[in-house]
Amino acid sequence: xxxxxxxxxxxxxxxxxxxKIDGQLSxxxxxxxxxxHSGFEPxxxxxxxxxxxxxxxxxxxxMMDAGFNGGAYFLMQKTKLxxxxxxxxxxxxxxxxxxxxxxxxxxxxxxxxxxxxxxxxVTIHEGDAPVQVLTDEMGKNPKEKxxxxxxxxxxxxxxxxxELFGEMEDF
Length: 171
Description:
Elements: E1 2-9, E2 16-22, H1 27-38, E3 47-51, E4 57-62, E5 74-75, H2 81-84, E6 91-97, E7 102-112, E8 121-126, H3 142-153, H4 161-165
Parallel strand pairs: 4-5
Antiparallel strand pairs: 1-2, 1-7, 2-8, 3-4, 3-6, 6-7
C-alpha cells in the first residue's frame, strides 16, 4: 500500500511537499525524505506526532529512545508507517526544531492499496522550506548583541525604590 502525504508549513506559506511512500517503510524513511527535500541537516533531532481530529498530539514517534521505562514509545527506525497510520486524512506534526517548537503539518491525502513503492517518491516540491533552526544567541554577531544590551541598559539607574514606587503603607 502506498501513502500520499501533503506536507506544509505555517512559516513558509508557499512551501508544499507531496510524498508517496510505501506503508511498509519506516517513519525514518519519511523523515529522511523530508530532511533531504527541505535542505535540512540530518543530525538535528526530530519527531513525528500523530494527532486526533482536534489536532492534539496523541503519539510520538521519535528518532531516539528517550529512556522512559514502562510506557509505550515508538522509534522512527523501528516503526513502519502502516503500524500507526490507518485512516485517510490522518494528520501529523513533524517537529524539526524543539527549542522553538516549530513543525511541518502533514496530512495523509491518499492510500493506494493496490501498489507498492521501493523508495519514497516526491511528486510535488514547491516553494522554500523554513530555516531548520532559528538563530540563537550564539549566532548573533557581536555588534547586534551590543545594541541589544544597550537597549536594556537605557532605563537609567534607580537608586531609590521609593523614587519609583513612592511610599507604601504597611497593611
